[in-house]
Amino acid sequence: MDPAAAMREFLGCCRGGCAVIDGGLATELEAHGADLKDPLWSAKCLFSCPDLIRKVHLEYLEAGADILITASYQATIQGFESRGFSTEESEAFLRRSVEIAFEARDIYYKKYSLSSCAQDGTKIASNKPQVLVAASIGSYGAYLADGSEYSGNYGQVITLETLKDFHRRRLQVIAEACPDLIAFETIPNKIEAQAYVELLEENDIKVPAWFAFSSKDGVNVVSGDSLDECTAIADACKAVVAVGINCTPPRFIHGLILSMRKVTNKPILIYPNSGEAYDADKKEWVPSTGVSEDDFVSYVNKWHEAGASLIGGCCRTTPQTIRAISNSLCRKTSDPRSCATNFVS
């Protein structure tokens, strides 16, 4: 099936035509005791505590997520090699990030199947929800681990070819792991978006992708590049099946959805952070700048009505946030959360 058609069918089977993306991974890993004060951030857990990643994935599924995002946002071959791992080991960590999400999905499917049986073992008719695994690819700035993905300022002149060379093998390895989607996340500028498009096309990547930009003013992406221009770059790429915003304060999301809707007819995805600011020097979030979970969830139906059809959370959101989002969307429709689409052809 054509990936764009598969995405439309998948969304049509979800609650009210809207799928739920999971929430913050790294900050939830920290809540479970992981020490992520490391240049590899959440990718460190791929070799230090992979079982914890699986546990957090499963918590999000049980909270109502339809889409899991892998622990590969800050996982790069260059980053692992800088820690002494070989190229082969580094590539294995990338593949492992996808495998762990698959494992969590399999556990969830098994639990879901068992819960659909009567006490005598008779199967109760029900629709098993389809869960998609989106393999995360963070920006070049994420690899730098200096907070520059939140500014788009890499401290030097970065060319299109430099970015393509940096991401090329990583993208190939991720695609070979056969996730359902590739999630290009927290894209800070249009040159990196263009690099992703050219790599998808030049390498004939068969896995559909989404592009998620970030904004700090509710008008442009964080680098100051035009959101319209960035959206148009994603819209022109056939491999991109959804485009939207992540890791952006909730107060900006409604206006950004309306702006993007003028440029693209592709599904809009949004997964904001909690509204807290990130201190790149201290490598920590500033809680006083955020919104409460109730306030965050109060936006959900407005975002859906504005045109968002994939909604979740980013940094500092939790399984409780995702459960509230799922419940809020479910109240708008009597349809169960279910879909049996074969997403990747």
Average pLDDT across residues?
89
Our measurement of the CA-to-CA distance between the termini, rounded to an integer number of angstroms, reads: 5 Å
Structural class by secondary-structure content = alpha/beta
* Strand order in space, largest sheet: 1-10-7-6-5-4-3-2
CATH class: Alpha Beta
**What is the number of strand segments?**
10
CATH architecture: Alpha-Beta Barrel
Major β-sheet annotation: 8 strands, parallel
Q: What proportion strand? A: 5-15%
Tally of structural domains = 1
Order of helices and strands: HEHHHEHHEHHEHEHEHEEEHHEH
| Cα-based radius of gyration, to the nearest Å | 19 Å
CATH level-4 homologous superfamily: Homocysteine-binding-like domain
CATH topology: TIM Barrel
Share of helical residues: 40-55%
Silhouette: globular
User: What is the count of helical runs?
Assistant: 14
Poorly predicted segments: 121-126, 334-341
Label this structure with key terms.
single chain, alpha/beta, TIM Barrel, eight-stranded parallel beta sheet, 43% helix
